[in-house]
């Protein structure tokens, strides 16, 4: 995930003030004029689905043509910021919870008018600012547990009905992970002669990845990432620190997860290790399925994330269809965004196996798509009906992210205590909140 240089944002604020006087109006002429809208996304797989969606939109709206623009994720935000500075951003584009605060507080986004009660409420909350919704809820992805059924069978281990964890190491998660972790001599952690330096297969992947890892531990232990939306970071409280300690202990104390030297970002190889059959249980967002499933040489299962001392609380990351506030075709841009939030397009994207739609009641198509590929994704869907939380929604996160990873890399390596790492990260993070 790239972050935007602060100087760009300073320019953006000034440029938008200058632009407020212009850029309105629907671009001239009468109803017969063909209006071309630009729609920007970053996922080449979803682009295939959106080509069908836009064809349906254009058929219903013959006066509007939609040009789909694909940019790789690492270029997407740099280009979007530059375009917003120049006053040339696309009419409708994808927006994430972590980028949203920067764009909405600088006046880049238009408020939208949809019935918010029809969408997943974590997604709605992720794009709400000063009681207004600034993006049509598009979809959601949620963190669950992918697991290697072949490794479970080889070890003679059943996936428990419910995985649980506690700070003292009790619970079915660690118990199961121990049975699945084996060294070259066939020994498990806790057995005499077990060699943590020569592990053949790890039971679990614990690593420095905030979305699928430590933020879920924190939330499931009653800790808080931020004190309120658009507020300050708060994950250095005792409950959060306990949760961070648990994630690190899985590696350095219990030896059921690969050492951080192999997994720390930016060179993390965890996905590759899972695909290669070296890790049995792998927390991942369902959005990773199209990239993992085709390459897996084993039968793959999906389980719900473990329950912590305060129950299960899982990251749900939604996207929104954002409308550029300075679009030259505001009426048509809004029409497109609102259409993308309706049943027909959201069902098309779900049925194609691309995403869980943000619109409630349409998940079955996504479930059926993956069922045909022998993967039961209902645990993802069930989790979404329970306690979920968004990524931190506050200004400055994208600039803070690199520093956060650097500090937590040291923690996962055992060079910083979780308390010291959390205190340092919270102080650094809060210095970026405007």
Helix and strand arrangement:
Elements: H1 6-19, E1 35-41, H2 44-60, E2 64-70, H3 73-86, E3 92-95, H4 100-105, H5 121-126, E4 128-129, E5 132-133, E6 136-148, H6 149-155, H7 172-180, E7 182-183, E8 199-204, H8 214-220, H9 238-252, H10 260-263, H11 270-275, E9 279-285, H12 289-292, E10 300-303, E11 313-323, H13 330-340, H14 343-351, E12 356-357, H15 364-371, H16 378-384, E13 387-389, H17 397-412, H18 418-432
Parallel strand pairs: 1-2, 1-3, 8-9, 11-13
Antiparallel strand pairs: 3-11, 4-5, 6-9, 6-10, 6-11, 6-12, 7-8
Helix pairs in contact: 1-3, 2-14, 8-9, 14-15, 17-18
Structure overview:
Residues 1-23 form the signal peptide. It comes from Nonomuraea jabiensis. It is found in: Cell envelope. It is a single chain. The chain is of the alpha/beta class. The chain has 2 domains: 6-140 and 318-389, Periplasmic binding protein-like II (D-Maltodextrin-Binding Protein, domain 2, 3-Layer(aba) Sandwich), CATH 3.40.190; 142-315 and 392-432, Periplasmic binding protein-like II (D-Maltodextrin-Binding Protein, domain 2). 40% of the residues lie in helices and 16% in strands. The protein has 18 helices and 13 strands. It has helices spanning 6-19, 44-60, 73-86, 100-105, 121-126, 149-155, 172-180, 214-220, 238-252, 260-263, 270-275, 289-292, 330-340, 343-351, 364-371, 378-384, 397-412, 418-432; strands at 35-41, 64-70, 92-95, 128-129, 132-133, 136-148, 182-183, 199-204, 279-285, 300-303, 313-323, 356-357, 387-389. Strands 1, 2, 3, 6, 7, 8, 9, 10, 11, 12 and 13 form an 11-stranded mixed sheet that branches. A two-stranded antiparallel sheet has the order 4-5. Helix 2 (44-60) links the parallel strand 1 and strand 2. Helix 14 runs parallel beside helix 15 (364-371). The radius of gyration is 23 Å and the shape is globular. The two termini are 21 Å apart. Residues 1-8 and 14-30 have low confidence and may be disordered.
